[in-house]
Amino acid sequence: MYPISSQMRAFVAKTEAFTCDDPSLAGLRQTYDRMCQAFTPPVPAGLHIADFSVGGVGVRSYRLQTPDPAEGWPCLLYIHGGGWVVGGLDSHDFICFELAATLQVLVIAIDYRLAPEHPYPAAYNDCRAVWQAIQAGEGPHAINLERQVVMGDSAGGNLAAALCLGLRDDQQALPRVQILIYPGLGGPADLPSRADCWDAPLLSSADTDCYLALYLRGNGKPSPYAMPLLAADFSGLPKALIAVAQFDPLRDDGRLYAERLQAAGVETVLYPGKGLVHGCLRARGQVPEVDRLYDYLLGYLRSELLTQV
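Now predict its structure.
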């Protein structure tokens, strides 16, 4: 039994109520989509949402229904979670709504290809294609290239970190900040959180192994762009905010990544996520400790995305 709050316990129960007798991949995705829909709030008033393609990859943009700023939109590139296997543009509307409406920035969510049909490096390549197309001025929005952030949760946090590694290695333009929410970064199996949280609510250690195996399917030696903790060098990367969940087998992936970034001289903040579980971003407005995480995230983003370089 994990000592989570009564509000968090209610959120976990509501999430786990979405079960399916169909064990197939299609059944898993349909169940996940139904669960996500149940936690998606109405579209905030005054928000404009559009689906289009950038760099040959589907994306969804969220912005206020106002003219483009003269200097271009501050832009947050959002990469959704789901173990690289489930999820899409609809699954993370809930957080993209809030980021765009509250911060009054342009949010672009990436509809990357999913495993196991499209194993690594498909999702990574899709994220790079979108980033590079934005730098080239593609897409319908004027973007301030000096004010760009990349953010992702879970598998999306993995992809955000990997994107920053690849861009640095190729000496390309980097985002101002990387924000990783309970990311899976390919940490070793003997990390304490794997044992401490082996049967944690909403994500077990066995789940993490299964998802990673589907993502790496058919690829021999793992790459740091698939498992960022394998990187030999962590210097020269964008400053980072890494938020972990206390009761999550992936907790120590984020902690270890923060340590390695800090040791390499990268300005890094680690949010310890006391009382949190994996996937809890959907508990906005239902669980006080999740609301505190949002307050911290939004405050950090305001200071990094909306201030002068």
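The two ends are 46 Å apart (CA to CA).
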